[in-house]
Amino acid sequence: MRTSIALAVLIAATVSAGCGGTTASRTATGAAAGAAAGAAIGSTRADAGKGALIGGAVGALGGYAYDQHEKEQERKEREERERYQRYGD
């Protein structure tokens, strides 16, 4: 039963990790999702606090990395649109 709950929280955290449009909101969403997942997983080992702390840190790093990836993709798309408008290729 605990494994099922932990798995459900982990899936929900993964799905919601990309929410937000700014660096701060993506990082915060990742931290919150990671903390929730870490607490759920940590509770299976009777250490939810430690799991939440580790999960929050990992989630924040993941959210930040996702934000940077999205910004890079947006930059490439913008450059491609500008090149197309300028040269028509």
Short description:
This protein is mostly helical and 89 residues long.
Protein described:
By secondary structure, the chain is mainly α. The chain has one domain (2-87). 85% of the residues lie in helices and 0% in strands. It has helices spanning 2-16, 23-43, 48-87. The termini are far apart.
Write the layout of secondary structure elements.
Layout: H1 2-16, H2 23-43, H3 48-87
Sheet-strand content, in percent, reads under 5%
Please provide the count of β strands: 0
Overall residue-averaged pLDDT value = 83
Instruction: State Rg.
Output: 18 Å
User: What separation lies between the terminal Cα atoms?
Assistant: 57 Å
Low-confidence stretches: none
The level of helicity is: over 70%
Q: For the report, how would you describe the main beta sheet?
A: none
Shape verdict = elongated
Question: Can you tell me the number of structural domains?
Answer: 1
* Count of separate DSSP helical elements: 3
N-to-C SSE series? HHH
Structural class: mainly alpha
